[in-house]
Design a protein that fits this description.
Structural class: alpha+beta
CATH class of the largest domain: Alpha Beta
Strand content: 25-35%
Number of helices: 12
Low-confidence stretches: 472-504, 573-598, 622-632
Helix content: 10-25%
Amino acid sequence: SDFYLRFLTFFFRNCTNVDRHFWRFGDIFSVPGDVAMLNSSLVSPKLFNFTHVPYNISWYNLKTGQELNNETGRLLVHRENVWFLNVTLADTGEYETILRTPSHCYRQVTNLTVEEPDAGECARPRRAKQNMTSGVTNKLSCPLMDYIEKLNSYDIRSSITWHKGCQRIEDGTGMFTYLENYLKIDRVTSENSGTYTCTVTFTLGGVSGSVSETIDTMVIGRYSLVPQVREPASEIIKAPMGSNFTKQCLVFVPSVGEPEVDVFWVVRGRLISSHLPSDRVYTTEKHKTLRWEDSPIKGAWLERLLIISELKTEDYYLNYTCRAFSARGNPMGYFTLLPTDPNVMVPIASTLCSLALLFIIGVIILYSFKVDIVLWFRMSFPVFYTDKDSDGKLYDAYVAYPQKSAFGFSKDVEMFALHTLPEVLEKACGYKLFIVGRDCLPGEAIVDSVEENIQASRRMFLLYTASTFTRKRPTSSTSSNNNNIIMSDGSVDSDNTDSQRVNSCEVEYPDARQQLERVAAMHRALLEGTLKVILVELEEISPSQLEQFPESVRHLRKRQGAVCWWKNKKKTHVWRTCIKKGEDEEKEKGEQNMELSASLSPSSRFWKEMRYHMPVRGKRAAYPEKTALLNL
């Protein structure tokens, strides 16, 4: 044997010795008659890639120096395992494993100790220790899990039996239940203390055998059962970017006495170990016992906080796990952190408010500058408008105003009609007007004159003042009042009854033409809708004066409004109130000329409104059918 030992030492002196105490299965204990399994831990990815690199294993008995080989009914060598199917005291010793690859050699020693059991005892000499908790259900774990897993890898079935002392425990009797590799004991009491032996029986290499392991069990009153992670509970939490975030890990531990549990937060597979607020992601230093609970289950509530001082992009879409570590189990709960959904109501409300504001501003601008916008569009895009010259009309507008000796006649109104209107609309703007008192034919009947000329006009200007529609005539010939007064019996008292008749515009009954013009205009405007009547208000009208107007005029004024000349005059008179008295006549005359020039400017507000109501001078040709109808 010494020769073999020297030979092995020389031959394998270059093999790497792997410390047996660093690996599992370093020391194996058994009793005579049992099955003992030696397992080499050299086949490990820690040493080499055994799934791709070829290797072979040899077992040697260091006591004899001989290589171990299969012996029917007694020894079975299977790669990294050696099975002693009926171990004896003589098998006690050290066994070496030699593993060779094309480039390396490894060696490891495993110690097998075979001991006689104590006299009069059924338990094994070497025992594991497990404690049980009084008053609750407990489970004892069979210490032979390595044997069971290896047999399962060979596809060999095995069975487990349990003994308390020397007495066999039957499955399902009393408080005992077999659960795979566990023995469940209900409502444990102090009488359940003692030794429990787990025996695994199987057939290997044609030999039926068994292996047993004994557990020393103590029942204690203080206990800590499997903890329960109540929060987080597999949830999704949303938090805004940049905010401070805190999440509670809440654990309930059914226990009597201080629970033996550690609570940790884990993210990306790593423990969050920092407890410093200076670190952006940290936890409270240790779990805190919030309270004790006596019913319905005795236990303690534990808490540990996860704190993120400022959320950043890298914190989202991760699972944050709270894990409770204990000897009874390691339950966990997690939550997924997501950014908050964008508040769609804010942009929607902002958009709606902006649209509403733009709409209001647009309406205000359109209302304030409607006339300017329309005039600009007409001037810039005349091609969109039909040429009116082919509609069969002779005049752009018919101008009606109080004639001489008629109610409401005024020199200022006559001056406006005969001079101011033509000066701007005809000379400056190119419109063609029919003006009563200027364009009437001699000897033409009033009815024919009014009907034909209104029919030949595209618009009608109805000029009026406060006294136009009243029944009283003024006494001063120089004012805006009339020289004639209507008596209560309907007769006319005139200071000048011998007025000369120049043409049909100056008739014996001047009110007749005025009345006829108004009636014809209102009929076409309000009933037929064939004529657009433009009310031109030459002086400011008070509410009491407006009440005396004919109902048709009041209705038209309310519906479409009036173009007010007096507003234009008022603006041009404002600056004159600051002129001191006693200035020379030339300066006053110059100011009057400036005022007149301003009032006759086509770009003034009054004349823009007048042009706005006038027909559009377009360039687009009218359809032949429409032109033919207009010429009828």
